[in-house]
Amino acid sequence: MTIGEVVETLSPAYPDLSISKVRFLEEEGLVAPERTQGGYRKFTEKDLARVEIILRLQKEHFLPLAVIREKLSEYDRGKIPAELEETSAVPDPATLPFVDEPPVLVAEAHSALGIPESFIRELAEYGLVVIVRGDQGEEIAPVDRRIAHAAWDLRRYGIEPRHLRMYETFAEREAAFFSQALKPAFRHRTPETRQRLVETLGELTGLTHDLKNHLLRRALARVFEDVV
Length: 228
What we know:
Blueprint: H1 3-10, H2 19-27, E1 34-35, E2 41-42, H3 45-61, H4 65-76, H5 82-85, E3 104-105, H6 109-113, H7 117-125, E4 132-134, E5 137-140, H8 142-154, H9 165-182, H10 191-223
Antiparallel strand pairs: 1-2, 3-5, 4-5
């Protein structure tokens, strides 16, 4: 199993998981996949389960890596940590954008996300994430951690935060369009209305994602027609 397949397998339950996050866990010695002769990581089912344990301890119990390392040591000795004996429920994907997840302290970005604090601040300079002052210091919202992971992975292709401003601008315009189209039908604030709005937004974002993907593919075929 490749590192990309690990991310793809676990992403439904852990949407903020990225390739850089798995690499960071490896750098910290929390997971140790084998390497092929070509130097590529090769994850086993045991490695996959170990990554899932780490993510579960972070997501459900907010444990720092130092404590997680101790829990993994117990697990390796055959002792099941109490936190892993609990039953966890995976939230409905349609409600994920509205789940109250804990924010990430900017000062702890490296340990929590595997991303340098300086990069988070660079993203903030271009309006891609928003840094606010919380009770424990500067922090970013859960959705911003996912943005940070995506932007961090794009660096491998020479794409820097300054290049991503157009995506933020388009997202704001698209959100404003959705608001104009949907708000008249969801004026009344009731639990039932909120649930219907969540479901509608889930369907709408899925459809527009497909539309944008197909439009991009068509444009790429035209732009690169002389080399492919």
